[in-house]
Amino acid sequence: MNPITMQLVADKYIRLALEEDINSEDVSTNAVMPEAKPGEVDLICKEDGVIAGLPVFARTFQLLDPETKVECFVKDGDFVSQGQLLATVKGDIRVLLSGERTALNYLQRLSGIATYTRSVADLLAGTKTTLLDTRKTTPCMRIFEKYAVRMGGGSNHRYNLSDGVMLKDNHINAAGGVKEAIAAAKAYAPFVRKIEVETETLDMVREAVEAGADIIMLDNMSIEQMAKAIAIIDGRAQTECSGNITRENIKKITDLGVDFVSSGALTHSAPILDLSLKHLRVVE
Fold this sequence. Notes:
This protein is α/β, with parallel strands linked by helices. It contains ten helices and twelve strands. 42% of the residues lie in helices and 20% in strands. Helix 3 (54-64) runs antiparallel to helix 4.
């Protein structure tokens, strides 16, 4: 993760996570380690997967003490194996103990997302379809979770509501129809913003094409419906398939030739990757 992005955006969320875990003091650590003492501890991988979030892991300790050193033996996006030594953290033992859980929470979560994303992205290898995430992220974790998707081989959909126009079913209902919603977006949004519209029927697809949508999302359609929709669009807009897309069913849509497939499961359903800090020792 870019150091500038880390300090401008990510630091505030890491600080909040640390404050959640240490609202006054770390009683356990202060009891056994009342004074500073140098030490180091190993980051061990406990199952195979894709590592992601090492800069966040390191920054967590460094916000507690800038003198903390983290030596990494792998980089984000690498495949790691059970039992592998991934990094060594060196510094004040009190910092190593107090920052351990928060740092691991980030790293396990992001590595789990990267691992799951890689497993889905591999199913799209050799096709024209790009794998996208969604805004279905954990509150205050979006910057980290979307980064993890990229480390797993996926791509990011819009980051937030300011990024682009996506007219979903409720926007269309509010505007009075597909054509009306697209016309309103064209009149309001800056010309540099693409307009995407969510469609659920072939009639909505036809309306979206006629109204000049840039991207047409085929939402929760059957394989047969999507094939007909793509024929109607006929290259006049980019296509995105969405709705309950998972690792188990994504292969069914790869032959359709859609430009993008978006899956909320990348961030909301990925299990963590099991990692651990072990073998803490005093360094004299």
